[in-house]
Amino acid sequence: CSVRDFVTVDEAIQAIRDQASELETIYYVYVVNASEELLGVVSMKDLLLSTPETAVTTLMETHMLGMLAPDTDKEQAANLMAEYNLIALPVVDSNNKLLGIVTHDDVIDIIQAEATEDIQKLVGAGADETIHDNVTYSLQKRHIWLQVNLLTISLASGVVWLFRDQIASYTFLAVFMPIIAATGGNTGAQALAVVIRSLALEDIHKTDKKRLYLKELYKGTINGVGVGFIGACLAFLMERDLKVSCVVFVAMTLTMGISGFSGAFIPLFLKKIGLDPAQSSSIFLTTIADITGYFIFLSLGSWLLL
Asked: Rg of the Cα trace of the chain?
């Protein structure tokens, strides 16, 4: 609701009653001048607790947080409302003229839409794609990322091709290759999910990046020690060879550490160069995890076992 700057509390409350059927919310009352320029805001609580003859201008707060422009991104509007813990934000033009408000129920819809968009983009589907879209539209949204995925995964296959003779000489290497790559991929995906969410909430600042990379590297490595030990025990039960167990343990630990680092680095790097982190991070992460896992495991295996 908006009222003129020359009215009293009693007149403001009467204006709210007159507009009640048209208002989305009455928690905040915006004060404007004769040119509809926004001067300040008054809470409904302050109006009700003040005397009827009090001028609205004496109650209003002129320092307003979270003012929006008409072209403000909807996700940014949601973040501002959450940051300042408000239930409505004013929308003003370049002349500070009040155009409308964005309310908390609008933001709930925005957050839900943005969350589902990010989930779909993470796997290469269209952000606005639904089950009701026609086949042609869905193919246009998905096909390019499947082509990119084919290109990137071919790099991982190239690493396997380089070690084809070693794999042929000791087939056990082929048995553990998918395990090494999968554990690395899952480690990176965990870090990626946390970073993508933090980016959406604007929780990551420039000074946080180096610490974030090292932290995820540390988390991945520590998890790698625990998971790698179990993998090494499994390898020993299968082959009865301590060298095999050592190869599995070291490869898994290093791969998970590097994958954790990559899960943090990739989305931030993509954002820095102007790409959407949610749209392509998972494809590049999978490639790095596979290449790293295959190369480390097959290199160690070739060195220690053959």
From this structure: 28
Q: pLDDT tens-digit profile of 41-88?
A: 998 888 888 998 998 888 988 888 888 999 888 778 888 887 888 888
CA 35 to chain centre: 41
User: Greater confidence, 79 or 163?
Assistant: 163
- For 276, the token pair is 């959407």
CB 28 within 8 A of CB 73: no
Token duo for residue 210: 């180096």
| Residue type for position 181 | A
CB-count exposure of residue 5 (10 Å: 0-12, 13-18, 19+): middle
| Residue 188 near residue 263 (C-beta atoms within 8 A) | yes
Residues of the chain above pLDDT 70, percent: 91
- Report the amino acid identity of residue 289: A
Q: Tell me, what's the pLDDT at 32?
A: 87
List strands edge to edge, sheet with 28-32.
2-4, 28-32, 38-43
pLDDT of residue 106: 78
Cα torsion through 7, 8, 10, 16, rounded to 10: 40
Q: Tell me, what amino acid is at 260?
A: G
Q: In terms of C-beta density within 10 A (0-12 exposed, 13-18 middle, 19 or more buried), how is residue 306 classed?
A: exposed
